[in-house]
Amino acid sequence: MHRFANPNVFLRLSNRIMPWSTGVMIASLVAGLVFALGASPADYQQGESVRIMYVHVPAAWMALFIYICLAGASAVALIWKHPLADLAAKASSPVGACFTFIALATGALWGKPMWGAWWVWDARLTSMLILFFLYLGHMALANAFEDSERGAKSAAILALVGVINIPIIKFSVDWWNTLHQPASVVRMGGPSIHPSMLTPLLLMAIAFTAYYVTVVILRLRGEILARKIRALRMIRVQAESKGESGPYLREI
Amino acid sequence: MPNMFHMGEYAAFVWPAYGLTAIVLIGLFIISLRSLRQRQWVFAELKESMEETKTARQQPPAANDEPGNEWPDDDGPNSNGPGNSPKASS
């Protein structure tokens, strides 16, 4: 695993992955949207409003999936001091926050016509809101310290403590009486949803996953560069302080 | 596909859901790309300026007479008084 700790190995790998992730994202997004907005049938009860599901559900899956990735990266960073792991965590949390926001906002837009309310303090919705705050907290903490390593460590601990929220979100619909419907895709005994609706759902999930990979690579490259810039500035400051004292100037 | 783009009575909920998703995802993509481009630019500039300084120092052997000329931008905030400036001390 430490082979990938070398930023240059990562950069070479990311150069190879990027065109594929972008291609998969565009192809599955186009196909997914065609199915989601047209080729799939309207629901017999919910009518056309069911089409909100094709962005709402994949976004909620991504919110959970990215948090698991974030916690995994944080654990690797804390245990093995992998130099890219905390950068990967820092690059992931804004993407996760965006998907959580999308899940919450599209859920409200779906809830209003179906439940008659934009928001209810239901176990599933509340635990998703907590997930959103966990992401925001992670982003704030990772950038809160002058010393980026301390920030990364605090953010990693927050990410690991927050993992407890993931099973709560997943099983909230079974553990408590909620307005939110129970799982119909990822469940024991296979999906209970018709293939005509499952197809756009899975296509959009693939598109969102490819989007995550693409954006996280972009952000990770940015974080690596930021670290290099910081290192160069340190060298410059050191050179400057040596320069002031005179005799060491020519060593640089 | 007769019902494509026809959302009936739910158009006011379906389209904002898709529009919001598009805005958030495209926005994050643009922000990420911009920040990467900006950092690439800063990195290139910094590297170039440091290379220049390095070669400028290596060429004239007596260049360390006036260290203040090497880092003109950074001397100001670091000097606490007139006596601390490299020019004044040289």
Structure in words:
The complex is a heterodimer of chains A (252) and B (90). Chain A is an all-alpha fold and 252 residues long. In chain A, 75% of the residues lie in helices and 0% in strands. Chain A has a domain at 22-175 and 195-211: Four Helix Bundle (Hemerythrin (Met), subunit A) (Up-down Bundle). Chain A has helices at 7-39, 53-80, 85-115, 123-142, 148-162, 165-175, 195-245. In chain A, helix 4 (123-142) runs antiparallel to helix 6 (165-175). The radius of gyration of chain A is 22 Å and the shape is globular. The two termini of chain A are 35 Å apart. Chain B is rod-shaped. Chain B starts with 10 loop residues before the first helix and ends with a helix. Mean pLDDT of chain B is 71; it is low at 63-90. At the A-B interface, helix 1, helix 2, helix 3 and helix 7 of A face helix 1 of B.
Outline the fold blueprint.
The complex is a heterodimer of chains A (252) and B (90).
Chain A (H helix, E strand, L loop, with lengths): L6 H33 L13 H28 L4 H31 L7 H20 L5 H15 L2 H11 L19 H51 L7
Helix pairs in contact in A: 1-7, 2-3, 2-5, 2-7, 3-4, 3-7, 4-5, 4-6
Chain B lengths: L10 H48 L16 H4 L7 H4 L1
Distance between the termini of chain B: 82 Å
Shape of chain B: rod-shaped
What class would the helix/strand composition of chain B place it in? mainly alpha
Beta-strand residue fraction of chain B: under 5%
Q: What is the CA-atom radius of gyration of chain B, in angstroms?
A: 28 Å
CATH topology of the domain at 22-175 and 195-211 in chain A: Four Helix Bundle (Hemerythrin (Met), subunit A)
Q: What is the CATH class of the domain at 22-175 and 195-211 in chain A?
A: Mainly Alpha
Q: Kindly report the greatest chain-chain contact and the residue count on each side.
A: A-B, 49 and 45 residues
